[in-house]
Request: fold
Amino acid sequence: MTVLKSLDEKVYMRSLVTEIINGESYSYYPLGQYVVRAMGVCGDRPTFKYTRIEIAGVMERLAKGENVENIVLGFRGRV
Reply:
């Protein structure tokens, strides 16, 4: 049995998904239902699916005590 040592190894064990969104190709590795690692988006760092909103930034804001409603309002209209 092989043990995966990093997130990168886990991601690349998953299948690359390619979709056409608004006439553009969008390729990503799914990390969950709403979290992906999209090729060429935000330096390939995890983002919310179909956005350029990085997971790490949202997690940092939550860790500092900001509530979810304020975070969502902060991103309103930006993807």
User: Anything to note?
Assistant: The chain is about 30% helix and 25% strand. The chain has a mean pLDDT of 86. Strands lie at 17-21, 24-30, 35-38, 47-48.
